[in-house]
Amino acid sequence: MLRVLAKPGKGRKVQNFYPHLYRDEIAEAPEGAGVAEAYGAEGEFLAVGYYDPQSRIPFRAFRFDRGPLNRAFFLARFERALARRAGLGSAYRLVHGEADGLPGLVVDRFGEVLVLQVRARAMEALREVWFPALLEAVRPKGVYERSDLEARRQEGLPDRTGPLFGEVPEVLEVEEDGLLFPIPLALAQKTGFYLDQRENRRLLEAMVRPGERVLDVYSYVGAFALRAARKGAYALAVDKDLEALAVLDRAALRMGLRVDIRHGEALEVLRGLEGPFHHVLLDPPTLVKRPEELPAMKRHLVDLVRLALRLLAPEGYLWLSACSYYLRLEDLLEVARRAAGDERRRLRVHRVTYQPEDHPWSLHIPESLYLKTLILQDDPL
């Protein structure tokens, strides 16, 4: 087995279950890639993982005790992930990367079909070991791969998209609390459906009242908008993805619900709308992928929130989500405060939510907390 030696003081974080050693934290390493044991500067054992000098994170820890990275190891990890998600229904995230002890792997389950992403060189190199274990643990009818994301390209890996195993339908039927979404896998974003907003969608449906007006910006397939329509509210969905809006249209027609649709960029569409709306939801895509991007993105969000506030009804609710680790709750609060000041709107924090339990947040891995939602209510004196 290969051996990696951490620089003085850099092994402590691995001892505390942080799974990454970066290039400038490694004192000695082999020339080639492979399964490796990591040791601290004093020779103490740290972890077993995979070392690859071409990866942006050269050492990724898989286990913090001695042992192989074989089929039995991965089978136990997948079975543990399944057990932790018992009772969550037919659609949920089965594997959430490092937080589930499987760095660089994401697996979403939609009934008897799995959709996965391989994001790192380490997991790609071990594919022939972990993939049979995944099939054994879950026994799906089909597996589809959507490894076509920027993180993979940063690793120097080619895109991989298409069926991997068994029978995979061209259109994935995603069910959530009685709503059905017919999603063409070849056109889907990420793994097809944003499972991480499930609890917020339930919360919205509980809060919306018949006759209210709901604006769902960055709607994708309109999962928020459809829940509002089901409660008897007027719902308007805004997105620049025509294929996603077509899915929304088909889903609404099938369920006998009405959702109005606007196609276009969020800022441009918001400038042309007339309010008021009792709920305005802003769920933009990952805007900040590197720390240096944060100032510009915060300015962009201030502009977005300012326009949203102009459309918000008195005592209405503004929902602002961020799905980037680098954009923290404090940043969202600052953005909202700046926009509210510009618009002379007094707001109160109604609630703050985070990602649901099938997207675990590990205390030891700060990056595993990525989704934050700030729910604000207009609060005039």
UniProtKB/TrEMBL annotation:
All copies of domain S-adenosylmethionine-dependent methyltransferase, residue ranges: 164-321
Ranges for domain RlmI-like PUA: 7-63
**Keywords from the UniProt entry:** Cytoplasm, Methyltransferase, S-adenosyl-L-methionine, Transferase
The biological process GO terms on file are: methylation
One Pfam match, by short name?
Answer: Methyltrans_SAM
Say if the entry is tagged with keyword Methyltransferase: yes
Entries under SUPFAM superfamilies matching the protein: PUA domain-like, S-adenosyl-L-methionine-dependent methyltransferases
Q: What is its main location?
A: cytoplasm
Annotated Gene3D superfamilies = PUA domain (2.30.130.10), RNA methyltransferase domain (HRMD) like (3.30.750.80), Vaccinia Virus protein VP39 (3.40.50.150)
Keyword Cytoplasm tagged? yes
- GO terms for MF: methyltransferase activity; RNA binding
Q: Where in the cell is it found?
A: Cytoplasm
Q: Which InterPro entries match?
A: PUA-like_sf (IPR015947), PUA_sf (IPR036974), RlmI-like_PUA (IPR041532), SAM-dep_methyl-trfase (IPR019614), SAM-dependent_MTases_sf (IPR029063)
Domain of life according to the entry: Bacteria
The family database entries (PANTHER family) matched by this protein are listed as: RIBOSOMAL RNA LARGE SUBUNIT METHYLTRANSFERASE, S-ADENOSYLMETHIONINE-DEPENDENT METHYLTRANSFERASE DOMAIN-CONTAINING PROTEIN
Family per similarity comment: Belongs to the methyltransferase superfamily. RlmI family.
Q: What is this protein called?
A: Putative SAM-dependent methyltransferase
- Organism in which the protein naturally occurs: Thermus oshimai JL-2
The lineage is: Bacteria, Thermotogati, Deinococcota, Deinococci, Thermales
